[in-house]
Amino acid sequence: MKWLSLYPDEHIYSGLIRYRIRMGQGVMSDKRFFSHNGLPYQWFRSQVPLNHLMRETLDIITPEPDKQFALRLNHTPFAPWLLSLPGSMAPHELKEASHRPNTEENPFQVDRRWKYCPNCMQIHKAKFGVSYWRATHQLPGALICEEHGTPLHSHDELRYLAFKLPHHYLHKSQALVLEANWQHDWQSFIYRMSRQLQSNPEWARNVAHCMKSYLGLERVIKHTHRVRFGGFFECMKEDLGQDCLAGLFTRFARGNGRQPNILWLTLSGYSQGKGLRHPLYWLACLFWLRSALPELAFLHEHRSDHGS
Ligand SMILES: [Zn+2]
Q1: Distance from the CA of 120 to the center of ligand 1, in angstroms?
Q2: Shortest CA distance to 177 belongs to which of 152, 156, 147, 158?
Q3: 90, 166, 209, 276: which is deepest, by most CB within 10 A?
Q4: Cα separation of 120 and 134, whole Å?
Q5: Tell me: the pLDDT tens digits for 187-229?
Q6: Against a cut of 0.90, is the pTM above it?
Q7: How far is the CA of 173 from the centre of ligand 1 (A)?
Q8: Domain residue ranges in the chain
Q9: Distance 121 CA to ligand 1 centre (A)
Q10: What is the per-residue pLDDT across 96-131, written as a single tens digit (0 to 9) for each?
């Protein structure tokens, strides 16, 4: 594939849409476009950087693992997945989550539609002549543009991306609303966490240990520790609030049935089931401890480069 270079923070699928236009493949049917380029015929989803379509897309762009890793890290909302990296694995080896397609996002409440910032869009149009989808605007729970501090926009059609760039939605999209208090704090949290992981992909390796040591837990968790986890999780629920857990996890949003102990599921390593623990589990726990863990000091630092 004669791939084109991506703009800063441009999502890979946004590049694929521009590629199709550039190559004059817009006249083909969608199905034909995918088969012509050796890709599986699948919807573009905003928050699944480890799925089959993304792997195949990266494979046709470049065969080199390092380049694939850099593309995934800087051009999809992949960075939080590094929190889920198994200890035995190098960051660039993380290529799949082994979840069943289409059901992997069901346990989560965050808005999965594609989002864009109208201000960024105008700037990109002026600077590059096109608008494009930014990867970091697709981070779970992102509702504002970090650069402009203004709400991101979305539209119900944007559950999947139908080969359209953001400017197509300019006059029909709606601004996202920050409904709950926790969402305000989540904005800088998710952007800064992502940036931390992008600049140091190995950083997450120590996160579980830091959390355990702060909570006074042993390195190896045993089933008998579950009672203590029960107590910790009561604190976590109290501190985060029901709105926050309901905004992240479907089981809490429904308000009936058993509510899983998120801290236990994240830290114990048990009940892993098939596939990786989704990063939202890790993010929820870190969000809880964001003011407590010294390793998270970067979340509170003043950014002198902000807006530059
Ligand atoms: Zn913006």
Answers
A1: 4
A2: 152
A3: 166
A4: 9
A5: 999 999 999 999 999 999 999 999 999 999 998 999 999 999 9
A6: yes
A7: 15
A8: 12-93, 118-175, 181-299
A9: 7
A10: 887 665 567 778 999 999 999 999 999 999 999 999
